[in-house]
Design brief:
It comes from Flemingia macrophylla. InterPro entries: Cupredoxin (IPR008972), Phytocyanin-like (IPR039391), Phytocyanin_dom (IPR003245). Keywords: Copper, Electron transport, Glycoprotein, Membrane, Metal-binding, Signal, Transmembrane, Transmembrane helix, Transport. Residues 1-18 form the signal peptide. Residues 19-120 form the Phytocyanin domain. The protein is of the alpha+beta class. The protein folds into two domains: 2-13 and 123-178, no CATH class; 20-118, Cupredoxins -  blue copper proteins (Immunoglobulin-like, Sandwich). Helices cover 38% and strands 18% of the residues. The chain contains five helices and seven strands. It has helices spanning 2-13, 37-42, 68-73, 128-138, 146-178, and strands at 20-22, 51-55, 63-66, 81-83, 87-91, 96-101, 113-118. A four-stranded antiparallel beta sheet has the order 4-3-6-7. A three-stranded mixed beta sheet has the order 1-2-5, with no helix packed on it. Helix 1 packs antiparallel against helix 4 (128-138). The two termini are 41 Å apart. Bound molecules: 2-acetamido-2-deoxy-beta-D-glucopyranose (NAG) (2 copies) and copper (II) ion.
Length: 179
């Protein structure tokens, strides 16, 4: 029981390392090539402690952090903060949405905008690898009496499935609500 709980906790805890994400990957922060920054962000699991790097030619672009309303309307009149070095690292220190766009006229409208959404609930928990490893290993845990052990493992498996399902639904609801 203790071992199984420990492994479940490890599966949830293994996401807590800091990652560095370069916006747009090798393409960087640009209007060239019609980069879909929404799609880029959707495949990431941003966490507190991560660093977001905007790399671009500072002659042609910049980075503005803005409110949701300004993000939606591409209104660059009063950004929360502006970055102009061409290699800007932004450290994530809180949950929720972090809206950025390029403040050069026309660039946000052309799609140079990104929403870094740091979820409260880890979206890594429902992925197959995190789901499978604790349950698979659970069946190898030596049990004092098999008649007691199997209902326990089935119950744990059920609880984990319900939890992952709930988390999945919640993330989906979150995603559709804010987009
Ligand atoms: C942009 O935002 C400012 C301040 O919030 C507002 O005064 C202005 O009317 C907005 N401009 C447009 C085009 O919506
Ligand atoms: C951007 O800065 C990071 C360190 O903050 C550095 O490792 C990287 O080489 C820089 N990239 C460019 C293109 O200057
Ligand atoms: Cu730009």
């Amino acid at each position: 029981m203790g071992v199984v709980l420990f492994m479940v906790m490890m599966a949830v805890a293994q996401v807590s390392h800091a990652d560095v994400y370069k916006v747009g990957d090798s393409a960087g922060w640009t209007t060239l090539g019609n980069i879909d920054y929404r799609k880029w962000a959707a495949t990431k699991n941003f966490q507190i402690g991560d660093t977001i790097v905007f790399e671009y030619n500072a002659k042609f672009h910049n980075v503005m952090r803005v409110t949701h309303a300004m993000y939606k309307s591409c209104n660059a009149s009063s950004p929360i903060s502006t970055f102009t070095t061409g290699n800007d690292s932004i450290h994530i220190t809180n949950h929720g949405h972090h809206f950025f766009f390029c403040g050069v006229p026309g660039h946000c409208e052309a799609g140079q905008k990104v929403d870094i959404n740091v979820l409260r609930v880890s979206v890594e928990a429902p992925t197959p690898s995190a789901l499978v490893s604790p349950t698979v290993q659970a069946s190898h845990v030596p049990a004092p009496s098999p008649s007691n052990a199997s209902p326990l493992i089935i119950a744990l498996r059920g609880a984990f499935g319900v939890m992952s399902f709930t988390i999945g639904i919640l993330s989906l609801a979150f995603y559709s609500y804010f987009n």
